[in-house]
Specification:
This protein is of the alpha+beta class. It contains two helices and four strands; from the N terminus they run ββββαα. The strands form two sheets. The chain has a two-stranded antiparallel sheet. The chain has a two-stranded antiparallel ribbon with strand order 3-4. It comes from Halobacillus naozhouensis.
């Protein structure tokens, strides 16, 4: 049985995603992140969400 994980950034449940530093993100967020320049405030948001999710993985 395949379990569906939810994206750490948009919380969407999808099988089509990747694990990045133990954090699960969906394809659309991955694509968006790649296409966002690092000086864009949106990129900071992605990083923040990733850090939050990553911390919760370590704590649990
Ligand atoms: Zn997502």
């Amino acid at each position: 049985m395949k379990s569906t994980e939810s994206c750490s950034i948009c919380s969407k449940k999808t099988d089509d995603g990747i694990h990045l530093l133990q954090v699960y993100i969906c394809r659309s967020c991955e694509k968006e992140m790649i296409n966002t320049p690092t000086d864009d405030p949106k990129y900071q948001y992605f990083v923040q969400q990733m850090n939050k999710a990553h911390r919760s993985v370590i704590v649990s």
